[in-house]
Fold this sequence. Notes:
Chain A is an all-alpha fold and 267 residues long. Helix content of chain A is 72%, strand content 0%.
Amino acid sequence: MNKYLSFFRLRFIMGLQYRAAALAGIVTQFIWGFMEILVFRAFYTANKAAFPMTFTAMTSYIWLQQAFLAFFMAWFMEEEIFDAIINGNIAYELCRPIGIYEMWFSRSVSNRLSRAVLRCSPILIVAVYLPRAYRLSAPKGWLEFVMFIVTMLLGLLVTVAFCMLIYILSFFTISPQGLRILFLSCSEFFSGGVIPLPFFPDRIRAVMELQPFASMQNVPLRIYSGDITGDQMIKAVLMQIFWLCVLIGVGKQICRSVEKKIAVQGG
Amino acid sequence: MIIMENVCKSYKVVKRNAGFKEACKTLFRRDYETIHALSEVSFTIADGEMVGYIGPNGAGKSSTIKILSGILKPESGTCHINGLVPWENRIRHVRDIGVVFGQRTQLWWDVPVIDSFELLKDIYSIPSEIYQSNMEDLTRLLDLREFLKTPARQLSLGQRMRCEIAASLLHSPKILFLDEPTIGLDAVSKLAVREFILRLNEIHKTTVILTTHDMQDIEALTRRILLIGKGKILMDGTLADIKSGNSSIDETVAELYRSYDV
Amino acid sequence: MRGALGLYFRYISINVKSMMQYKVSFLLTTIGQFLVSFNVFLGIYFLFSRFSSVKGFTYSEVLLCFSIMLMEFSLAECYARGFDAFSGMVRKGEFDRIMVRPRNEILQVLGSKFELTRMGRMLQAIVMFIYGISVSSINWTPGKAITVVLMIISGTVLFTGIFLIYASLCFFTLEGLEFMNVLTDGAREYGKYPVGIYGKRMLQFCTFIVPYALVQYYPLLYLTGRVSNPLYIFIPLPAILFIVPCYALWRYGVRHYKSSGS
């Protein structure tokens, strides 16, 4: 446990050092969030009735999405791990006394956690004080808030479990870029990263909510503003747990067979 | 002819301290320290000389090489190479020099070495006859024929190094900068590389400036040694000047560093 | 100048050759690029299945706007990718290698990366452009055709200029670069809708500061028949001037690199 904590500390300190990066990142995310809101406002004014959520729920969704980007963005992967696979440093990693899956999993989680913690407060604070139409509003209630936190963490774990699959599958291809882009574009679409899931036509939406990507950012962000309540909420949490178990299970299986036969690309 | 006079160069570096509290502090205020990489560095190198440029890590060797190549501009002092100021006439100056960085490669990784050579031919606008004759000489002397058609990533370090050296000589430069050229090479390759550089200097009178920690390279190739430490030229002499008694060359040099307190 | 063009083509061929070594990866990446922009298309499609129009612009008009912008972007990305990837180059110290070659640095940076895979996006753009035209109710005239061509040319130059700014900033800071993504990826993301829907101030920004509106919004008004002044055909042209300050920034950046090292 200690080594994971110290890894977290290390990443966090590193993050603080690069203040130019932190600043640039925060400004960037503001601009993105703002632009997203502008887009949806344009559509909202076009036809209020067809808008599947309230506008305040929408703005909260967008600001939370930006603040916790590091949690859910699947394209935010660790180059070091890919490099290690490509140039064979993986041999070193195998000589350590921790399982590779556990090690990479905890690294990814702490990496994302430290990044998110660094970024979220400035964004959240400013987003709360924006003019009423654009701001991040309070959660619907205490239950919603607690469930929000719980499902956020679950969503983080599901995202990381998915990324683990990508890392492991890239063992089977010499050049993982293609694989990455393929998976990443799928995940972005199906998790509600392109447009939030409620915007899809109802029939399609029912199917979309069952796949693993829906258990990433979609659930917590909508629970926060009360878009998912009651029975729906329980169902969503169970889905998250279900997919978490499946992804980890599959991941560990493949990992075990990979560990047995490693082909190291020469150099 | 290389003439360097009173060259000074310093860098401002951010001071980074360890620990959590310190890291939070850097968020609001930055501490800089000035590093004097070069102080009043002066030397002259004649055409066709082979010079070893040694010094402990961080002494200012790479800053000097960068200034000589025209990549870096010093704060004060002058430098003339064959009449040109390197950083002011970059393109003209660079046409006549070759640089080998031991740790980095100039070859394209995934394509056969010969393709990288052909690209260099175009970059340096080398006339075809000269390119052909240089290619033949270099291929023969460095024994490259077997793997000219192999992609760089499949070569062993020794083979790659020989290709790097050939690549930097295709355009018949008058001056060759070698930065750690034999690092990581096996004994046979090292000897081959040294042999080649000696012949190069003999036949073409190429000026060679060698930066390395491998003292056997220095012994084999150069007679003149420039020692730099903490940004200052501490010694400009010959190998004979520093050698004493029966100690190995490494011990001699270590002793030398100690005596100058670098 | 002719030598430079020949050299550029040789760079392209060596890049393509490198990529062909990894055929599977090339295929997958191209498909991936196609899918990424297909995602964006799907986003537009589903949004418009709910809302019939936004600020007066219909689905097919938005599609046209998006596809033209995508073509501009992917063209620029295809051949100016060297600038986009420049931060990696500086980080690894490879710019030094470029400085040691007797050629214009921009030519070399452009030549360092020519990514054919970005064609995946272009393919998507072409497909959508054709689709957009076929379902649109635009009366096509030679004037409008010229407008589209000018949009694409100027737009490509505009995006190249933005990539150039990005690369120039790499000389000053490697960390604060994320901000630039707003202008590149942001333009691609939010350029899918006519810039006018974002409000007056955004329109002003995109007209006078970074002239997106000149290559997207205003010509679109002409194409869709909302304005009929034929002068609008040439409105994309001034956007080409944008590259002048970008180039100045680059030269400033190179000077800064020379005096501060990497």
